[in-house]
């Protein structure tokens, strides 16, 4: 899965790790990734995979859980998202054009990305900002939780497979 790269337009911003109160409600990152995945449209029936058994009822239950989570977050969330920028997402890092998003103010800032416009909260990513190229910016991801790292890689892999299925 390490070679998987997904291109998405996402709202993105930087946030200080030293704030006492986060700007956005905090949601378990693994739960947020599952919520984002549930918001994706269903796979075409012709591309069902044996590796991902999924009944229609289970998918409906996940979508219902997702809607309930979204409703609970809407009251606390600020619906204003930053401008969407093209991002290249991979399990190890995130890249973007220097013209689209400036670097962080401080080395320990976290990258906030709204992976889906319907998500009322951003995904908070920790890592190291790398400025190797004057035109390309890169954020090397670091995960303190192996479940979060696995969920991130699985989501990107699913998106990659869906992009391939749509292109056929």
From TrEMBL:
Q: Which InterPro entries match?
A: PilZ_atypical
Q: What is this protein called?
A: Cyclic di-GMP receptor atypical PilZ domain-containing protein
The residues covered by the Cyclic di-GMP receptor atypical PilZ domain are 42-168
């Amino acid at each position: 899965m390490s070679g998987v790269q997904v291109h998405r337009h996402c709202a993105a911003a930087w946030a200080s790790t030293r704030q006492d109160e986060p700007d956005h409600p905090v949601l378990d990152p693994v739960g947020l990734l599952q919520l984002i995945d549930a918001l994706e449209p269903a796979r075409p029936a012709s591309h069902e995979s044996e590796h991902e058994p999924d009944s229609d009822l289970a998918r409906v239950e996940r979508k219902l859980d997702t809607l309930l989570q979204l409703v609970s977050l809407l009251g606390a969330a600020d619906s204003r998202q930053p401008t969407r920028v093209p991002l290249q997402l991979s399990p190890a890092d995130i890249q973007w054009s220097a013209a689209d998003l400036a670097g962080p103010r401080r080395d320990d800032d976290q990258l906030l990305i709204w992976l889906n416009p319907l998500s009322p909260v951003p995904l908070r990513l920790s890592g190291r900002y790398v400025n190797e190229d004057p035109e390309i910016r890169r954020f090397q991801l670091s995960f303190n939780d192996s479940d979060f790292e696995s969920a991130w890689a699985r989501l990107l892999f699913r998106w990659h497979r869906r992009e391939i299925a749509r292109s056929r």
